[in-house]
Write a structure and sequence with these properties.
By secondary structure, the chain is mostly beta strands. It is built from 3 helices and 13 strands; from the N terminus they run E-H-E-E-E-E-H-E-E-E-E-E-E-E-H-E.
Length: about 230
């Protein structure tokens, strides 16, 4: 699964994702965590790319606010997306891209769990494949939320975790957002494991373990722990 990620280079988002404008303030985050509002790229009603702030952890439109403890998934398994009612309907028209500059996973050491920062080496800013939904808030304003798609790991991630968040190749971003593509068989290949030979992974500070920690020092490499 992916439970924390990094978005450090917010100044590059407009150019990287070909956005006409960004109409809300975006601060860098070095420890993005579930329930936080984070920027998500979607296609708007006019067919334009737009960034919108969304809550990490999917709130399905059929779920009443405060109505029980139904799951609010932060991840969705690619292998079962067409079978899960929560995700199946979103595949056709609610796909999104979540900008990032890295993500964290944890590995066991004799000193406890060690956070590892993982990122592509050929993209400073990249996009996770995701799904989003919208429901009416208590004040009548829409509440938008998202989940990240995961799949089997590549050779870099496999020693660390048995799942890997889906990173889109730049050439696959437009097909992933294409509103005319509605069938999963035509989309599934877009979310395969990112090539291991174009990624790196290294240990970072255990301060990452607290979602309250959020500064650039979190992504500084440290000596490997045994």
């Amino acid at each position: 699964m992916c439970g924390r990620y990094v978005l450090g280079r917010v100044e590059d988002l407009s150019e990287r994702f070909q956005l006409r404008e960004i109409n809300f303030d975006i601060d860098p985050t070095f420890n993005a965590a579930p329930t936080q509002l984070l920027p998500v790229l979607v296609i708007d009603a006019n067919g334009n790319r737009t960034l919108q702030p969304m809550r990490w952890g999917l709130l399905p439109r059929w779920k009443k606010r405060g109505g029980g403890k139904a799951p609010e998934p932060i991840n969705a398994r690619a292998e079962t997306l067409p079978e899960r009612p929560m995700f199946r309907g979103l595949l056709a028209g609610n796909r999104c891209i979540v900008p990032a500059t890295g993500f964290y996973e944890w590995t066991e050491t004799r000193h406890g769990k060690q956070p590892i920062l993982i990122r592509p080496t050929d993209q400073e800013v990249f996009g996770f494949a995701g799904l989003w939904d919208e429901q009416a808030g208590e004040d009548g304003e829409p509440v938008r939320s998202f989940t990240l798609i995961t799949g089997p790991p590549n050779a870099i991630v496999k020693p660390i975790h048995d799942r890997m968040v889906a990173i889109l190749e730049p050439d696959n971003e437009e097909p992933w957002l294409d509103p005319d593509a509605t069938e999963w068989p035509a989309l599934e290949h877009l979310v395969g494991p990112y090539p291991a030979d174009r990624m790196e992974a290294f240990p970072v500070s255990r301060a990452v373990n607290s979602p309250r920690a959020n500064d650039p020092s979190l992504i500084t490499p440290i000596a490997a722990d045994d």
